[in-house]
Write a structure and sequence with these properties.
heterodimer, A: alpha/beta, Rossmann fold, 9 strands, about 15% strand, globular, B: alpha/beta, five-stranded parallel β-sheet, two-stranded antiparallel sheet
Amino acid sequence: MKQDGRQFDSHGRLRHFLTIEGLPRQTILDILDTAESFIAMGEREIKKVPLLRGKTVVNLFFESSTRTRTTFEIAAKRLSADVININPSLSSTAKGETLLDTVRNLEAMHTDLFVVRHASSGAAYLIAGHVSEHVHIINAGDGRHAHPTQAMLDMFTIRRHKGPFENLRVAIVGDVLHSRVARSEIHALTTLGAAEVRVIAPKTLLPTAVEKLGVHPFTDMRAGLADVDVIMMLRLQRERMTGALIPSEQEYFNLYGLTAEKRAYAKPDVIVMHPGPMNRGLEIDSAVADGPNSVILPQVTNGIAVRMAIMALIMGGTPAAEARRAP
Amino acid sequence: MAAVDIEAALARMAEALRPRLAARPIMIGIHTGGAWLAERLHKALALSEPLGTLDISFYRDDFTRLGINPQVKTSNLPVNVEDRHVILVDDVLHTGRTIRAAMNEIFDYGRPASVALAVLIARDGRELPIQADFVGETLTLDKHQHIKLMRAHDPHGTLSLSIQEAGG
């Protein structure tokens, strides 16, 4: 899907957060910087600021999720918004209501922000194209297309542990083909000017012409991990696979599972990341997932601050918010 | 505007604050100008407790109009404010909205025994019932004028005031 500028309003302010593709480098850095001050807030006694007091946030998750939905909920609550969680597969969609009708009804209840996850690529775009001017949309994962807030929290985690991107060699490992996380990560890393971005996977799990995204593909994991600073593992998405893309789970683990032996090809101070949920013993060995190089749990903590920053930046200071208040 | 002697004003403020030291107060400066002044007062009074700083961006009442500045500084209160006497320091007291936001933020860290306000400049234009307890200089300015504290990049961190015409 092409970036069409729908994320920005007529004043050039970020209004929705749908994809990282096409976002200016400065916008990404602004989000990371803002998140940094929300981290400090998360460490104090009262973890709440009044920024979004009186605003209503609806978590609209057409696909299940625990981590993402929960961190969005905590993020919105720490900004003092009211949060409603809706799992449409259990409600009106199950009775035949269309996506846009569901959204229109919730909008009629004066929702200010929708956080949307959907199995179809472009679902968040579709909604963003139909809501009124004062309503904001955050894409929390659409099909195989994008998961921009996950990529942002990954960038935040990398910057905190490893410093400037210009010096970093990053390897993304696993099911790149089905991964919206990988796509968003690649756009973020190339925009931020990472020294090198590699993708490591069997040919069947690499998108065609993946080089065009500015990455170096590897099918040999040990060669791909040589001297990298960051290893970003991906979940093997068996639920999205339609054919036999991997030989067997045991063989996949032998070739592409991250073990301590394979990790040793990377730099000694490499950080190991995973967006969760992890398939232990399939794409990652427990010894690595729980080992000293792992930043998998800090990723989750950082997700709250990064999502707070994104909500605060898109919902603050839009002229439309003022217009709505005027009589 | 008559020239303000910042060093003399700071010295007067320090002397006025001195009787409060017995209560072992915590000094907190508001970013950015207030933090510079608090640094100076903290040193002049040789306060035992470490200095705190506050960025009130997340507490501003004009958030929906102006949004947030991504260059938000991190608030840092190294000492628990619970039951302590707080001296809040800012450069200019104007509408009072910054101080209201600062007090809201302080109360999210705990319940202080008291909060006193020290400002270098108290100008006219209050929009809230907030007054300073310690004032370096009182000024009357035109409505569209804004006064701002600056710090030079010299070894002394020399402080100066500049007046800006709003919208100009």
